[in-house]
Design brief:
Number of strands: 2
Low-confidence stretches: 271-275
Radius of gyration: 29 Å
Largest sheet: 2 strands, antiparallel
Helix content: over 70%
Shape: elongated
Order of helices and strands: HHHHHHHHHHHHHHEEHHH
Structural class: mainly alpha
Strand content: under 5%
Strand order of the largest sheet: 1-2
Length: about 400
């Protein structure tokens, strides 16, 4: 237990450091600002998509009431009235106005994807048809799925009301858990689909569950705070619901982004978090893998490196491949993989050592062997010889060097 607890605390510290290094509080503030402007367009698009299907007539307003009653603290009731009025006015706009609303909603999705790509260290966002399909699915299929889910919940409720509690065993438990289950499903899909990289579904599910549960606890805690500490009304008066609603949006985005850090952190091997190879060895290993794949006419992806036995986290992968790209050693393909773009027969190890920005490792701190790397013993021997020659040539202190210079001038 002490070992597992220490490992858990180490993982939590790792997540907090990454959370602050990714400037997540600033990203949450930007997302709050974007959400404030995009919430009305998203509601308008949702109502418009649901009104297309006759069976979903009026479901949009019911979904809105459901969301505000189950996912937003009680302070959102006043804001809900404002948003509903704004949305009704927005639905009377011309096609040009609707186009502007669509652009605003897309800007929110772009901001979310940018924040997630920063967490996953993805430097290239989605482009072209993949980006269009993702955003179109969110703006079109998302409301339809919400309508279907809400219709199912309504059907279960009607069975209980008209046929009695025995109509469906466990219906009360199902109705109480439905908001949490829907929230878990939504966040799982967000974590799995939004980042422009491969995210294991089991990790997305863990992050989605964590975020949904934490949001529910935060909602209840926020409601208690508003109930027992109403001093904010003395300052803002009738306008108090609006800043509280903004504060809740900001807190929600903080939780969502921390959940994204959790999903990303789960993909990082524990061994690499506790003991990492020197960066130069990692550079050489990846160059060797790129060279082998080049001989086979294949491109290299992170999962290929991981399948080869190197539990490499996304952060390390992005940094090293960024160095390769700057040095024009490797380039990204249209499919998202990497290939060598330079003949290693005309690129020496001395040139690599001179250009790589990381310090040379000390031979005594290197692992005794690297499985599957036959070049490693010769490299360690050469590195040891280099360190010995350096100590022999430059081992004297600076005082001795300066005294040597003065003695040469005195003799002259």
């Amino acid at each position: 237990m002490p070992f597992q607890l220490d490992r858990l605390l180490s993982f939590v510290r790792f997540l907090i450091k990454r959370f602050m290094a990714d400037n997540a509080p600033h990203s949450a503030a930007a997302l709050t600002y974007t959400t404030l402007f995009a919430v009305v367009p998203v509601m308008t698009v949702t109502f418009s998509m649901l009104s297309v299907i006759p069976a979903f007539q009026g479901v949009g307003e019911q979904i809105q009431n459901y969301v505000f009653s189950n996912f937003v603290p009680s302070t959102g009731a006043v804001v809900q009235g404002y948003l509903h009025a704004f949305s009704n006015q927005a639905r009377q706009l011309t096609w040009v106005g609707v186009g502007v609303l669509m652009v605003t909603a897309l800007m929110m999705l772009l901001t979310i994807e940018k924040a997630f790509n920063t967490i996953w260290r993805v430097r290239q966002p989605r482009r072209g048809i993949s980006s269009f399909l993702l955003y179109w699915a969110v703006l079109s299929l998302g409301p339809l799925l919400l309508g279907a889910a809400f219709a199912t919940t309504t059907y279960v409720t009607s069975l209980v009301l008209f046929s009695g509690p025995e109509a469906l065993l466990g219906a009360g438990v199902v109705l109480r858990l439905t908001p949490l289950v829907l929230s878990i499903a939504a966040f799982t899909l967000i974590y799995a689909a939004v980042p422009n990289t491969r995210v294991p579904l089991r990790h997305a599910l863990v992050g989605g569950t964590f975020t949904a549960v934490l949001l529910e606890l935060a909602r209840r805690g926020f409601g208690l705070y508003v109930m027992f500490f109403p001093n904010y009304e003395l300052i803002y008066g009738a306008f108090a619901a609006v800043p509280l609603f903004l504060l809740w949006i900001y807190l929600s985005w903080i939780i969502v982004l921390f959940g994204a850090e959790l999903v990303c952190g789960l993909s990082s091997s524990h061994a690499w978090r506790t003991r990492r190879l020197p960066r130069l060895l990692l550079v050489l290993v990846l160059l060797r893998i790129l060279h082998d794949y080049q001989q086979q006419g294949r491109e290299v992806r992170l999962r290929d490196v991981q399948r080869a036995g190197w539990a490499l986290p996304d952060e390390e992968w992005s940094q090293v491949m960024g160095f390769f790209e700057r040095e024009r050693l490797a380039s990204r393909t249209d499919g998202g993989g990497w290939v060598l773009c330079r003949d290693l027969a005309h690129y020496g190890l001395a040139e690599l050592l001179a250009r790589q920005p990381w310090p040379l490792p000390v031979p005594d701190e290197l692992p005794p062997r690297l499985d599957g790397e036959p070049w490693y013993p010769a490299f360690v021997a050469a590195l040891q010889a280099w360190h010995d020659a350096r100590d022999q040539l430059f081992g004297a202190s600076l005082a001795e060097w300066f005294a040597y210079g003065l003695a040469q001038e005195h003799d002259a």
